[in-house]
TrEMBL record:
Coiled coil: none annotated. Keywords: Oxidoreductase. Transmembrane segments: none annotated. It holds the Pfam family DAO. The lineage of its organism: Bacteria, Bacillati, Bacillota, Negativicutes, Acidaminococcales. The keyword Oxidoreductase applies. This is FAD-binding oxidoreductase. Residues 6-358 form the FAD dependent oxidoreductase domain.
Length: 380
């Protein structure tokens, strides 16, 4: 087994796989370590598939704009696999005046950054999507947003990376980082295997925190459980991506015809003893019914749709709700890409593209300074 490479990536989700792909395109040798037996079995395959600029924090928005302009439009052709990307707009829905205030603040911020987004009233919402109920009194509308298939996209980057020579090792969890002469050099796994490289990228979701801690870096992220569900195939209704003002409900209709919806009830993690389900991907018994009640209020025509299955995933939530990206000054050679707070899929390809540039050129086209780990350093 070859255990050395220019870059060692921990985590084979959308961020780890896309970074590996873009690094390999730049001529780097890359090893990707995945603790699960299956590639992409974390948040990257357990999300709603949104590819959106609207509703994002201004600090991460430039990355999403870069991805929408330069990567997503031709992603299927480049990777040689259908990622089911649709750029048919995003409606973020509001049912109360408070919701509209939240949406307007987000829309104004995005508009100031150059995003084509505006507020529309309930009648305009139903002109775009006539299946929405009268309870919706307004929305933000971004016609350049969209959605894609998380499973297909994550797999597409994996397969493209393999074709370029990236080596993957799965089913052996990384548990420790090791410095040599002050520079990060090694990743040690549960089996005792040691992988060595000039750069180590942690893209393992919440698992990145424990690994970073082995070299004295504490990333302020926690884990939340988010759930999703999928229906049987229905006749085609709409292509827009949907969300809500408080981000508690989202979804879209797939190419297959099924609907994928996700959300939370706010009680995940409180209904069972965490000792019995530590860092699990198990469902909370009240989340799916809560999401279904929301679906029926927004889309009365789906009241009788049959649910095929539900699933849960871990969201690595950062203390300030935006990801931690880039080099760690205290540990040369260490890079972070974690804390995406449920925003990681759509932004993932752009993150991988820019981190690959950072490794090879020591700079990025998109300014990542507002997302660096050093924003948490205590100020005197």
């Amino acid at each position: 087994m070859m255990s050395t490479a220019d870059v060692i990536i921990v985590g084979a989700g959308i961020v780890g796989n896309s970074t590996a792909y873009y690094l390999a395109k730049r001529g780097c040798s890359v090893i990707v370590l995945e603790g699960d037996k299956n590639v992409g079995n974390g948040a990257s395959s357990r999300n709603g598939g949104g590819v959106r600029q609207s509703g994002r924090d201004a600090r991460e928005l430039p990355l999403m704009q870069y991805g929408v302009k330069n990567i997503w439009p031709h992603i299927s052709e480049e990777l040689g696999y259908d990622c089911e990307y649709h750029q048919d707009g995003n409606l973020r829905l509001g049912k109360t005046e408070k919701h509209l205030q939240i949406l307007k603040k987000l829309a104004d911020s995005a508009y100031d950054c150059g995003v084509d987004v505006k507020m529309i009233d309930g009648d305009e919402v139903r002109a775009i999507n006539p299946y929405l109920s009268e309870e919706v009194i307004g929305a933000s509308w971004c016609p350049t947003d969209g959605h894609a298939n998380p499973l297909s996209t994550t797999l597409a980057f994996y397969m493209a990376s393999r074709r370029l020579g990236v080596r993957y090792y799965s089913g052996d969890k990384a548990i420790q980082l090791r410095k040599i002469k002050g520079h990060i050099r090694q990743v040690i796994t549960e089996s005792g295997a040691v992988y060595e490289g000039d750069t180590v990228l942690l893209a393992a979701g919440y698992g990145s925190r424990a690994l970073a801690a082995t070299v004295g870096i504490d990333v302020p992220i926690e884990v939340n459980i988010i759930e999703a569900l999928v229906t049987e195939a229905e006749p085609h209704m709409f292509n827009q991506m949907l969300g809500t003002a408080e981000a508690d409900f989202y979804g879209h209709q797939t190419n297959h015809g099924s609907f994928v919806f996700g959300g939370d009830c706010g009680l995940e993690g409180f209904t069972e003893d965490p000792i019995d389900r530590p860092n699990s991907k198990s469902n909370c018994s009240i989340t799916a019914p809560c999401v279904c009640r929301g679906i029926m209020k927004y889309f009365p025509d789906l009241a009788k749709a049959k649910i095929v299955r539900t699933w849960a995933g871990e969201e690595d939530k950062c203390v300030d709700l935006v990801p931690v990206l880039g080099n760690v000054e205290e540990v040369p050679g260490l890079m972070l890409a974690c804390g995406f707070t449920g925003h990681g899929f759509g932004i993932g390809p752009a993150v991988g593209n820019q981190l690959a540039e950072l490794v090879t050129e020591n700079k990025t086209e998109v300014d990542l300074s507002a997302l660096h780990y050093n924003r948490f350093v205590a100020k005197i």
